[in-house]
Amino acid sequence: MPSSTQTSPSAPAAPAPPWPGTRADGMAGLEIGGTRHELPVIVGTEGERAIDIAKLRSQTGLITLDEGYVNTGSTTSAITFLDGEQGILRYRGYPIEVLAEKCDFVEVAYLLIYGQLPTTEELHAFRSSLSHHTMIHEDMRSFYGAFPRDAHPMAIAGSVVGALSTFYQDSLDVRDPRQVEVSVHRLLAKLPTIAAYSHKKSCGQPLMYPRNDLSYCENFLHMLFAVPCEEYRVDPDFTEALDTLLIVHADHEQNCSTSTVRMVGSSDANLFASISAGISALWGPLHGGANQACVEMLERIVADGGDVKKYVDLAKKKDSGFRLMGFGHRVYKNYDPRAKLIKSICDKLLAKIARHDPLFDIAQQLEEVALADDYFIERKLYPNVDFYSGVIYRAMGIPVQMFTVLFAMGRLPGWIAHWIEMHQSPTKKICRPRQVYSGENLREFVPINQRG
Ligand code: SDX
Question: I need a labelling partner for 443 at 20 to 30 A (CA). Which of 64, 79, 108, 304 fits?
């Protein structure tokens, strides 16, 4: 018998976590068919804990199932931290409220992609590089003549961004940091041009070339609204509002479109192809497309006499197929901090331009009624980033069809940062989820003349 002073051999030390930026935090036990299995628990820098199931199948023969990945983390990431319960959102450790107040969008894009706030020289060089990549190839301008006049800007953006890989075949190598960096700058610089051209196409106006003397947001608004026949002065209030809107849209950890960019990128597809896929995922009305769907919903309510209670009640009926667009979130079970920021910009901008928008009134009434309703309270459904953003875009004269492509412009640095982070991971693998088969068992083939 071991002496009382002898201690039993200590439990095997938890294996070092393979996940960068985390530490081991004990083991989780799993009882399967009378056998106990142990899996390592890891913890991130903000105390989020996870069970590392990398060895689950080899240890137990089982896999996990999780529709929509509600409980499943796909990776660790050092880019964005969000706490859905507390309503916290930080990019590289900085609260978005601070970044929205102190930075412009280009500086935040630099932070997300390079991981640190830039020095004066770094930011100047970054701005200058973007300014000198804003034009698209003249042959790409001709694409716009081929699209139907009512082509959706997201369809155009996804197509043209994917086509960038045909014009820049010299910079598609995902393993060459120099080629990746020039592709990053080209994408950030050209997406506003691509987006603005889709609007000009829709209204039959000439495509306006970008201007190197304007800031990122001024340039976009100039390409969107200027015409060759007269000088166009960009409203500084609109520039400021757009800068903040792009900042609050810039990243949001593993949302549907960012996960899509990582998924496509994991096959070593080039950056343009990966971002084009992200644009397509963002388009859905349950995701980025909600900003357009939300304004269309508010317009419907105004046209229907403004009875918000009727629509709140409709949204509670499962079989109605109607949802309050711009409401609810997979992660935020508290007020989306971005919605708070956007709502305050809305208030400020509408007052500044002395414009009254009935949609803003209806949106506020809808919020008030819904947040007092048990259905929404029980499900912790609050306004999300898409609830008020459309009202601001409308106030700026931006057509509703353009709202989601503006979301894409904002999200682009986040997509790029995640794509790069994925490629820099020492444990990078191609994404290939498993499944549980639920179809027919083995069947004998029946010749066609014996069927039916
Ligand atoms: C974005 O992931 C991200 O971070 C996304 C995003 C980002 O920055 O990348 O934040 C951007 O996509 C914001 C979300 C924009 N989408 C919308 O506003 C569309 C309307 N909202 C929903 O469809 C919904 O809330 C989702 C899609 C946002 C979240 O869906 P979940 O997490 O899958 O939740 P769910 O659909 O299972 O809903 C849970 C319950 C259900 O009721 P029960 O079955 O429990 O009775 O809440 C209900 C839903 O019916 N519900 C709503 C509702 N949203 C959820 N009921 C009425 N109106 C709504 N808007």
Answer: 64
Catalytic residue among 251, 329, 336, 357: 329
- Determine the distance separating the centroid of ligand 1 and the alpha carbon of 37, expressed in angstroms: 35
Which residues lie closer than 8 Å to 197 by C-beta, 6 or more apart? 136, 141, 144, 156, 207, 223
User: 420 phi and psi, to 5 degrees?
Assistant: -65, -45
18 has a pLDDT exceeding 90: no
70-86 burial: b if 16+ Cβ within 10 Å, else e: eeebebbbebbbbbeee
Instruction: Give 289's DSSP letter.
Output: T
Query: Which protein residues are within 6 Å of ligand 1, measured from CB?
Result: 68, 252, 255, 286-288, 290, 315, 323-331, 379, 381, 384-386
pLDDT band for position 340 (cuts 50, 70, 90)? very high
CA atoms within 13 A on the CB side of 407: 31
Write the residue with the smallest CA distance to atom 9 of ligand 1: 255
Nearest atom, ligand 1, residue 256 CA: 2
Ligand 1 center from residue 328 Cα (angstroms)? 4
Phi, psi of 401 (to 5 degrees): -65, -15
What pLDDT, on a 0 to 100 scale, did the predictor assign at position 200? 97
- Give the Å distance between the CA of 253 and the centre of ligand 1: 16
Give the C-alpha separation, 64 to 78, whole Å. 25
Query: HSE on the CB side for 297, CA within 13 Å?
Result: 26
Q: State the Cα angle at 310 between 306 and 316, rounded to 5°.
A: 135
Residue 386 is a catalytic residue: yes
- Tell me which residue of 438, 117, 415 sits closest to 273, measured CA to CA: 415
Residue 316 Cα distances to 290, 299, 362, 379, angstroms: 18, 20, 18, 11
Q: Which of 170, 200, 168 is nearest to 186 (CA)?
A: 168
Nearest Cα to 292, choosing from 398, 390, 397, 192?
390
List beta partners, residue 81: 90
Q: What pTM did the predictor assign?
A: 0.94
- Summarize pLDDT for 139-191 with one digit per residue, the tens: 999 999 999 999 999 999 999 999 999 999 999 999 999 999 999 999 999 99
